[in-house]
Amino acid sequence: MSELQPLGVAVLTISDSRSLAEDTSGDYLESAARTAGHTIVARELVPDDIYKIRAVVAGWIADPDVQAVVSTGGTGFSGRDSTPEAVGPLFDKVIEGFGEVFRSLSLDEIGSSTIQSRALGGFANRTVIFCVPGSTGACRTAWQGIIEPQLDSRHKPCNYAAVLSGA
User: Fold this and answer.
1) Predicted confidence (pLDDT) per residue in 132-148, tens digit
2) Does residue 3 fall inside a structural domain?
3) H-helix or E-strand spanning residue 12
4) In whole angstroms, what is the distance from residue 76 CA to residue 7 CA?
5) Which segments constitute the MoaB/Mog domain (predicted)?
6) Do residues 127 and 71 lie in contact, with contact meaning Cβ atoms separated by under 8 Å?
7) Mapped to the 3 state alphabet, what secondary structure does 40-57 carry?
């Protein structure tokens, strides 16, 4: 088996109520990415504000050291949840199946409440972006079920690491 091609990963937490010290979801994603062999290039926490979210993600899309962005939070329907509206317009291509597969996986865990998730994924400027709900459980489901294997250059029959490297 070939060696893993480590990717530069940026983690963004979107929350009006948490600080970095209380950010168990961002902690999980950072730890999981490191454990998988990737490099954490950046980590931030921003309030659920369309323009603040978009500014951070756009900066990472323009950064050649960032090949993958994983955001947590702001994907629901309540209050100020606005991650899809902030990040979706930045995509060059949408990963149509990401939200569908995430909701399918989480159906076993949270039942019909999964329909309230607006998880989404896409590509922009050779950067893959995954936006998942804010709970640590949802981050674990998305990471283990979809994101980790898709960022693993050894995953067959296909993975996004190969797309990002141009292979």
Assistant:
1) 999 999 999 999 999 99
2) no
3) strand 8-14
4) 28
5) 10-154
6) no
7) EEEEEEECCCHHHHHHHH
